[in-house]
């Protein structure tokens, strides 16, 4: 060390000596002073510029370590207090309040019970809440952007009808399976679902396996979170899994389980139909048609308890008579239930036993042949009978002639209307009309020849036996005479005589159980006391039940005089009974557009009330155009000049079809009607009431002839359809009728698509923008499915109903449906749905206690009550149009489907996927891949 120190000192001395000898002493002094001044200047400048920061830094310096920890804790407390949650979610306060309460309950009941054991820090629950709220906010924005009208009015109806179609096909396949087959209803259902979905989707895994159902819901939630969560939150696996499990376990799983529970659905049906009155006839009809012994036994038990209760009260007094009457009714019901139980236990089918009524056939209504041929229900049963006795060719010939006559009459009438032309181009018009008329007449002749060759030639396999002289005269007319709709009258009379008097035809039909069943369908079995004895009396009484008309099965507002005036009600103004003085009032309740022969007109729906002094009112609806009101105004001005001062909306050259114009006119016309119905005006102008009655009455109104002609044409063609033979007569006849329609250029509905496609796929493009038609079509073809033998007739009936609504209502019904859907999705309604969900799961703010299991007998009684309520919800008009048996069959089929919990799960999953596809249009492929776990689908692919 000493040596190193001596060497360092020597080197330093050597450097200084050399430096001084080289630069001199003065330079060395100046250099040292300059370096010192430089560092002093830098330090001074830094102090001047950063003095405040330096003081703050020095003031914070301390050696007290616990004080630093205190500051850390304070900072943590400040951070905790700064975590605030924005309680705005959807933009609607009423909805946000319900959602916030539900979130409070979810965090309290599903997060804190396990998290409180882990930590007392509330930041994690708060972050979970924020994540869920972010999802709700994003979901709300997506919901607002989606178009819900088509989904609610079209897609849901289509899915429900397709679900019912799969169920019917599954039942048919199960019925056709061998007795030793292990095929179940669910297996057949999901096999058919694969075919309907073109091998892409099968939901058996989520309906039949609870574990796979949970996996499905978890994956479904992941897809929703992918679209709705912020990117950082979605990639945070812990937070995402917590959010997913909360949604699946606290919302989706309980909700799906409850909605799929048949007992809950039955209770919901009863609550939904609580405002519809239940009649004793409806309840008895349900008891007579039920095929479940447990339902009847449960009903018998409750009847026994009620009888015992009434007997304890039967101790004299003013109510003794009432109690005895109630006891008598209950005893009758108890006897009815015992009879049904005995029938089912003996192996007989459920339903009314009509066979005993045949023993007293003289008491039954004897339906005339013309009624049988014109009523759709009677025609269906009569067709089955004629096929059973091998006489169906006569019926086929008669009904095809009816169709040919209706089409020919229409075409000839069109030729007469088109015979006028202008003088300026008389040559061109004459040539064109002559050519078109010649082609039309040739087509009529060809159609008549086709019918003749099908039924009256010796070479035909479908030949019928009638007088040869009649056949020869008919052939001569077809070959030589000008086409006339009366060509086949003579041959048709022979066929009618054959069906009328042959023991195998009408006479034999009246002695079959199906005839008694037909009378029940037409409500002509009200009890023995109401059944008349003589044939003449029976036939004469048919007018009272609206059977003696072309549209016998349709309600009065369709077949009565109201139809020609566009009336939509069923008033009793046509009654001959004089009810005395009355007051009359009218108000326009709706306006819309009607398309007639390619032209669009504005139509106003008028509600008319005629109230008598006795207090009994008559109420009906009519439809009038503006020109009708204008003509009425002109008549009133001519007869009462002093009323010309009343305010009446003037005519417009342009813009008459605009919605604002129609609504403005509706308002002014209502003011005009109120002025006319002013008591002072009516009292001072006695002749005004007859004019108003003629204008507002349901009888024929001259000014509506154009509108009525459309309905006349409608019913002419519809009756051609009703009178034409159904499919069940023989397989070739339906094709023949369609060929006739092509020849005669009469538009018919296309053949139904295969049963393996969705119901919506069978709708033609004409109904795509017509919501009422779509709903009615789905309702007619699926819920109230007619028998297989009446498929052809069903298609024609659908055409009739579709054209009635389109012609009479136009877009009025459309707008009302849209308004109703908008009301159902309004903020207040959505808030009420959330409130109902909250109250069911957290009554009074506390978790709902596990409900006590309902015993089997209670569930069976609920089933009976639900079926009764469901049938009572249908109006009498629907029952009259479809028939009592058809209505009962349709309601029963829907109800039995709702009792299969696994199929209910499938239906709700379809609705959920449809809603998510509507919200997230690009999610369809991902949703489809969720069903890859289905073994049945994998087997079908392989």
Automatic annotation (TrEMBL):
<keyword id="KW-1133">Transmembrane helix</keyword>
<keyword id="KW-0472">Membrane</keyword>
<dbReference type="Pfam" id="PF02194">
    <property type="entry name" value="PXA"/>
</dbReference>
<dbReference type="InterPro" id="IPR001683">
    <property type="entry name" value="PX_dom"/>
</dbReference>
<dbReference type="GO" id="GO:0005769">
    <property type="term" value="C:early endosome"/>
</dbReference>
<dbReference type="InterPro" id="IPR044926">
    <property type="entry name" value="RGS_subdomain_2"/>
</dbReference>
<dbReference type="InterPro" id="IPR003114">
    <property type="entry name" value="Phox_assoc"/>
</dbReference>
<dbReference type="Pfam" id="PF00787">
    <property type="entry name" value="PX"/>
</dbReference>
<feature type="region of interest" description="Disordered">
    <location>
        <begin position="557"/>
        <end position="579"/>
    </location>
</feature>
<feature type="domain" description="PX">
    <location>
        <begin position="582"/>
        <end position="703"/>
    </location>
</feature>
<dbReference type="InterPro" id="IPR037437">
    <property type="entry name" value="SNX13_PX"/>
</dbReference>
<dbReference type="InterPro" id="IPR013937">
    <property type="entry name" value="Sorting_nexin_C"/>
</dbReference>
<comment type="similarity">
    <text>Belongs to the sorting nexin family.</text>
</comment>
<dbReference type="GO" id="GO:0035091">
    <property type="term" value="F:phosphatidylinositol binding"/>
</dbReference>
<protein>
    <submittedName>
        <fullName>Sorting nexin-13</fullName>
    </submittedName>
</protein>
<feature type="domain" description="PXA">
    <location>
        <begin position="92"/>
        <end position="277"/>
    </location>
</feature>
<dbReference type="Pfam" id="PF08628">
    <property type="entry name" value="Nexin_C"/>
</dbReference>
<keyword id="KW-0812">Transmembrane</keyword>
<dbReference type="InterPro" id="IPR016137">
    <property type="entry name" value="RGS"/>
</dbReference>
<feature type="domain" description="RGS">
    <location>
        <begin position="368"/>
        <end position="502"/>
    </location>
</feature>
<dbReference type="Pfam" id="PF00615">
    <property type="entry name" value="RGS"/>
</dbReference>
<feature type="transmembrane region" description="Helical">
    <location>
        <begin position="12"/>
        <end position="42"/>
    </location>
</feature>
<dbReference type="InterPro" id="IPR036871">
    <property type="entry name" value="PX_dom_sf"/>
</dbReference>
<dbReference type="InterPro" id="IPR036305">
    <property type="entry name" value="RGS_sf"/>
</dbReference>
């Amino acid at each position: 060390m000493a040596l190193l120190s001596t060497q360092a000192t020597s080197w330093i001395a050597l450097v200084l000596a050399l430096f001084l000898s080289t630069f001199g002493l003065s330079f060395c002094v100046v250099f040292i002073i300059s370096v010192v001044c430089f560092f002093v200047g830098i330090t001074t400048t830094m102090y001047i510029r950063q003095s405040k920061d330096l003081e703050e830094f020095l003031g914070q310096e301390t050696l007290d370590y616990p004080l630093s920890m205190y500051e850390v804790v304070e900072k943590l407390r400040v951070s905790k207090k700064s975590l605030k949650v924005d309680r705005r979610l959807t933009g609607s306060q009423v909805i946000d309040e319900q959602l916030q309460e539900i979130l409070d309950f979810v965090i309290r009941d599903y997060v804190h019970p396990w998290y409180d054991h882990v930590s007392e820090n509330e930041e994690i629950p708060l972050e979970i809440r924020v994540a869920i709220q972010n999802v709700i906010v994003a979901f709300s924005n997506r919901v607002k952007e989606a178009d819900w009208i088509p989904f609610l009015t079209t897609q849901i109806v289509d899915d429900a009808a397709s679900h019912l179609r799969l169920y019917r096909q599954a039942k048919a396949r199960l019925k056709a399976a061998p007795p030793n087959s292990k095929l179940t209803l669910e297996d057949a259902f999901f096999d058919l679902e694969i075919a309907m979905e073109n091998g892409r989707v099968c939901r058996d895994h989520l309906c039949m396996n609870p574990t796979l159902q949970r996996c499905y819901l978890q994956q479904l939630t992941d897809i929703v979170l992918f679209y709705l969560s912020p990117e950082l939150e979605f990639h945070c696996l812990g937070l995402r899994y917590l959010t997913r499990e909360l949604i699946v376990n606290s919302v989706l799983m309980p909700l799906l389980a409850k909605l799929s529970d048949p007992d809950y659905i039955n209770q919901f049906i009863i609550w939904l139909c609580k405002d519809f009155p239940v009649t004793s006839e409806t309840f008895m009809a349900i008891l007579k048609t039920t095929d479940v012994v447990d339902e009847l036994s449960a009903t018998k038990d409750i009847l026994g308890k009620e009888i015992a209760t009434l007997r304890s009260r039967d101790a004299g007094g003013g109510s003794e008579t009432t109690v005895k009457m109630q006891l008598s009714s209950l005893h009758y019901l108890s006897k009815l239930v015992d009879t049904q139980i005995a029938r089912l236990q003996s192996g007989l089918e459920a339903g009314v036993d009509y066979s005993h009524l045949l023993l007293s056939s003289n008491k039954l209504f004897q339906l005339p042949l013309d009624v049988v041929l014109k009523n759709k229900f009677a025609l269906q049963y009569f067709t089955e009978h004629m096929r059973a006795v091998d006489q169906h060719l006569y019926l086929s010939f008669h009904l095809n002639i009816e169709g040919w006559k209706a089409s020919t009459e229409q075409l000839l009438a069109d030729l007469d209307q088109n015979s006028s032309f202008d003088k300026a181009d008389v040559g061109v018009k004459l040539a064109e009309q002559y050519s078109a008329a010649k082609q039309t007449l040739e087509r009529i002749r060809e159609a008549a020849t086709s019918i003749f060759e099908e039924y009256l030639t010796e070479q035909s396999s479908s030949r019928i036996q009638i007088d040869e002289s009649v056949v020869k005269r008919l052939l001569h007319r077809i070959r030589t005479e000008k086409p006339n709709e009366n060509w086949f009258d003579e041959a048709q009379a022979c066929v009618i005589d054959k069906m009328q008097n042959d023991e195998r035809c009408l006479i034999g039909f009246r002695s079959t159980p199906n005839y008694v069943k037909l009378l029940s369908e037409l409500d002509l079995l009200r009890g023995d006391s109401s059944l008349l004895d003589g044939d003449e009396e029976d036939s004469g009484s048919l007018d009272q039940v609206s059977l003696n008309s072309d549209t016998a099965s349709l309600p009065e507002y369709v077949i009565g005089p109201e139809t020609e005036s566009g009336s939509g009600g069923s008033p009793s103004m046509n009654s001959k009974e004089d009810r005395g003085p009355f007051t009359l009032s009218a108000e326009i309740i709706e306006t819309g557009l009607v398309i007639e022969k390619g032209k669009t007109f504005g139509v106003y729906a008028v509600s008319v009330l005629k109230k008598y002094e006795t207090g009994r009112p008559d109420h009906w609806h009519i439809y009038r155009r503006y020109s009708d009101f204008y003509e009425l105004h002109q008549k009133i001005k001519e007869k009462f000049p002093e009323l010309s001062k009343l305010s009446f909306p003037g005519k417009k050259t342009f813009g008459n079809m605009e919605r604002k114009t129609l609504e403005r006119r509706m308002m002014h016309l209502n003011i005009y009607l109120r002025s006319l119905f002013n008591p002072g005006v009516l009292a001072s102008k006695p002749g005004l009431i007859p004019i108003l009655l003629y204008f507002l009455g349901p009888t024929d109104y001259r000014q509506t002839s154009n509108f009525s002609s459309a309905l006349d044409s409608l019913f002419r063609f519809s009756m051609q359809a009703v009178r034409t033979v159904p499919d069940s007569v023989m397989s070739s006849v339906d094709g023949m009728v369609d060929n006739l329609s092509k020849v005669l250029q009469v538009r018919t509905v296309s053949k139904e698509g295969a049963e393996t496609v969705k119901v919506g796929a069978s709708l033609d493009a004409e109904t795509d923008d017509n919501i009422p038609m779509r709903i009615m079509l789905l309702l007619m073809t699926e819920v109230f499915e007619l028998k297989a033998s009446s498929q052809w007739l069903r298609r024609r009936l659908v055409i009739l109903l579709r054209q009635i609504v389109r012609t009479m209502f136009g877009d009025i019904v459309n707008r009302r449906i849209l308004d109703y859907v908008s009301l159902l999705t309004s903020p207040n309604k959505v808030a009420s749905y959330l409130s109902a969900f909250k109250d069911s799961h957290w009554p009074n703010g506390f978790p709902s206690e596990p409900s006590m299991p309902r015993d089997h007998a209670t569930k069976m009684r609920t089933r009976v009550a639900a079926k009764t309520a469901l049938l009572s919800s249908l109006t009498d008009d629907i029952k009259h149009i479809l028939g009592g048996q058809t209505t009962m069959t349709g309601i029963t089929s829907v109800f039995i489907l709702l009792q299969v919990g696994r199929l209910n799960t499938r239906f709700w999953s379809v609705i959920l996927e449809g809603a998510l596809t509507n919200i997230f249009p690009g999610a369809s492929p991902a949703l489809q891949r969720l069903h890859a776990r289905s073994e049945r689908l994998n087997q079908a692919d392989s």
